[in-house]
Amino acid sequence: MCSLCLSSLLLVLLVLCFSGVSSADTVNPTIIGKGYRLVSIQETSDGGLLGHLQLIQNSKVYGPDIPLLQLYIKHETQDRLRVHITDAQKQRWEVPYNLLPREQPPSLTQTIGKTGKKPITVSEYSGSELIFTYISDPFGFAVKRKSDGQVLFNSSSDPKDPYGELVFKDQYLEISTSLPKDASLYGLGENSQPHGIKLYPNDPYTLFTTDVSAINLNTDLYGSHPVYMDLRNVGGQAYAHSGLLLNSNGMDVFYRGTSLTYKVIGGVFDFYFFAGPTPLGVVDQYTSFVGRPAPMPYWSLGFHQCRWGYHNLSVVEDVVENYKKAQIPLDVIWNDDDHMDGHKDFTLNPKNYPRPKLLAFLDKIHSIGMKYIVIIDPGIGVNTSYGVYQRGLANDVFIKYEGCTLLGASLARGCKLSRLPQPENCILVG
Ligand SMILES: *[C@@H]1O[C@H](CO)[C@@H](O)[C@H](O)[C@H]1NC(C)=O
Ligand SMILES: *[C@@H]1O[C@H](CO)[C@@H](O)[C@H](O)[C@H]1NC(C)=O
Ligand SMILES: *[C@@H]1O[C@H](CO)[C@@H](O)[C@H](O)[C@H]1NC(C)=O
Questions:
Q1: Which UniProt keywords apply (predicted)?
Q2: Quick one: which H or E segment has residue 392?
Q3: Which amino acid residue places its CA nearest to atom 7 of ligand 2?
Q4: Is the CB–ligand 3 distance for residue 341 below 6 Å?
Q5: 155 FRET partner, CA 20 to 30 A, in 167, 197, 353, 404?
Q6: Distance, CA 20 to ligand 1 centroid (Å)?
Q7: CA-CA distances (angstroms) from residue 1 to 80, 206, 209, 340?
Q8: Distances (CA, A) of 375 to 222, 311, 315, 341
């Protein structure tokens, strides 16, 4: 929402962000588990590989380990390799398949306890551009590029490495890859790293989709893009590839210069490797998978004025007028929820933003080619006389937690939790 959130909220969020990424964590990270052992692997009818991983030893931190994992690997296209690891006995949260249409891994009931028709004895599984290789005990996998033999990803650890083996618990997943020193990595947004999109060793990369002002450095922002592009100089030639961890849970990614560790608080490991080898090729392969960007309207590239705190329409009119006086061309003027009646989406404040006056203002700015945007908050105001709230309850559309409608509170919007009518057993989140 706004960029002017309460400073105390920012402070709390900042403290939370930084507490997860102390330098002790990156320099001397805790090795949590002993990893898993590959106990079976077979070919699937769709040309993939399906295996099971068994926990080597329980570790006590962060809850019990998941004892048996299902591993599924597939060369989905000439330049895309998928590595999917999940609980072999229980369905886990994944980015919904209807939101991001993609191939389904074999279902758990189908695979559990089945002995492979075609057990695999070789430890290499080759596609046209990429090769998947693995070590069984402890289990680690690597992805190599066929043409130049470069190892793009390698999850096995050595005793000298500052990271450990695969960890898979209900609320803590960890996996690492070693990287050559001269690899340059870009991505893992959105965040406000002072260096831009190039990854710098020991900078914090937290993906947690928070509404924090971008003024703060080293902070995670609205979006989560758990994908990076790795650019390498191989014998004087530039080679690019990309790794996407398709997981919508919060995560920290630790880049140490010669390794990268994902620490994720839920979901599954669903890796997609895009072979490149050019940066443009990577972007093409990635967007053919996640969806192409929509073309933007030309006017959206113009100059925008947007802020929270325009108390009434006169203030907005003044802002537009003052741009004109200062001879600064203005293409778009925004309202950030000040126009709403009592924080209710799709309404106008009758006193401060009367509809006839707003429409007259819009006619005026439209006539000179300007555009107007209003910010709509995804939160629906709790007010029993509010039609959207009433219809939402009647149609049972709100997110539930333990059977109760989940009430969130954006402090910046001044929601007052104590006034909300709630059945006794409902849980409020702030
Ligand atoms: C991956 O790393 C392990 C541990 O350092 C090493 O033994 C293995 O050879 C590497 N795999 C590849 C394909 O380089
Ligand atoms: C609009 O808001 C400004 C600033 O709060 C105030 O000075 C002004 O009187 C208001 N105008 C109207 C028409 O309400
Ligand atoms: C609900 O909306 C009405 C009409 O806008 C308003 O008068 C009332 O104060 C609101 N109630 C709450 C609890 O916000």
A1: Glycosidase, Hydrolase, Signal
A2: helix 387-394
A3: 315
A4: yes
A5: 197
A6: 29
A7: 36, 19, 12, 14
A8: 15, 15, 17, 13
* Ligand 1 lined by 177 (C-beta under 6 Å): no
Structure tokens at 236: 């004087």
Q: What size, in residues, is the chain?
A: 430
| Residue 184 CA, distance from chain mean position | 21
| Ligand 2 atom closest to the CA of 313, numbered from 1 | 1
Our answer on whether the CB atom of 312 is closer than 6 Å to any ligand 2 atom is yes
Q: Which of 313-327, 356-370, 401-415 has the lowest mean pLDDT?
A: 401-415
Question: How many other C-beta atoms are found inside a 10 Å radius of the C-beta of residue 70?
Answer: 21
- CA-nearest residue for atom 12, ligand 1, is 142
**In 3-state terms, what secondary structure has residue 202?**
coil
> H or E stretch including 175?
strand 173-178
Ligand 1 contact, 142 CB (< 6 A): yes
Q: Nearest CA to 218 among 188, 192, 256?
A: 192
Q: What are the pLDDT digits (tens) for 90-144?
A: 999 999 999 999 999 998 865 555 554 555 556 889 999 999 999 999 999 999 9
Q: Is ligand 3 within 6 A of the CB of residue 136?
A: no
Q: Which CATH number fits domain 11-290: 2.30.29.30, 2.60.40.1760, 3.20.20.30, 1.10.10.10?
A: 2.60.40.1760
Closest atom of ligand 2 relative to the 352 alpha carbon: 14
Helices then strands, counting H and E runs in the chain, come out as: 7, 22
The ranges assigned to domains in the chain are: 11-290, 298-375
79-105 CB burial, b ≥16 within 10 A, e <16: bbbbbbbbbbeeeeebeeeeeeebeeb
- The rounded Å distance from CA 174 to ligand 3 centre is 47
Alpha-carbon Rg for the chain in angstroms: 25
Q: Could you tell me if 149 and 232 are in contact, meaning their C-beta atoms sit under 8 angstroms apart?
A: no
Mean pLDDT within 304-317: 96
**Cα gap 385→401, rounded to integer Å:** 24
Separation CA 299–CA 311 (nearest Å): 26
Query: What are the CA-CA distances from residue 245 to residues 56, 83, 187, 228 (Å)?
Result: 24, 9, 12, 9
Residues 424, 250, 164: CA angle, nearest 5 degrees:
125
Helix 355-367 and helix 313-325, axial crossing angle in degrees, nearest 10 = 20
